[in-house]
Write a structure and sequence with these properties.
It is built from four helices and seven strands. The chain is of the alpha+beta class and about 130 residues long. The protein has one domain. The strands form two sheets. It has a five-stranded mixed beta sheet, with helices on both faces. A hairpin with a 2-residue loop joins strand 2 and strand 3. The longest helix has 21 residues.
């Protein structure tokens, strides 16, 4: 993994920790996503929010309703959650997005925890 990607994920995680520190657990995913987007702007990160993700099937672009919560610096996919606990399906969702977008690294961030850095952030790698 390149040093640039590691540095970028650290910046993203720092922004997420700041949001969690300010808001705490228990709010809607959309709230955390909006506040995380604000933090990205404050930190000078380029990103797209709710980016449509089509499926390319047999050479045809098909819109299937997939959306990336936050796509940072055209490199890292961030999936925002606010759930009691992360399930296997959440990791599978992010892995699918990484494969479809042909990217290597994603962050699965669950804001509905007491300590975000300890239990709320999962870094997912795709070897595509």
């Amino acid at each position: 993994m390149s040093a640039d990607v590691n540095a970028l994920t650290k910046r993203i995680i720092g922004a997420a920790i700041e949001v969690h520190r300010e808001l705490g657990p228990g709010l809607l995913e959309s709230t955390y996503e909006a506040c995380l987007a604000f933090e990205f702007i404050e930190r000078g990160l380029n990103f797209e929010r709710q980016k449509p993700l089509p499926v390319i099937y047999r050479g045809h672009r098909l819109e299937c309703g997939y959306r990336i919560d936050l796509f940072v610096e055209d490199t890292v996919i961030v999936e925002v959650k606010s759930v009691e606990r992360l399930e296997r399906v959440h990791k599978s969702q992010l892995l699918s997005y990484l494969r479809l977008k042909k990217r290597r690294v994603g962050l699965l961030i669950n804001f509905n925890v007491n300590w975000l850095a300890g239990e709320g952030i999962k870094r997912i790698s795709n070897g595509y």
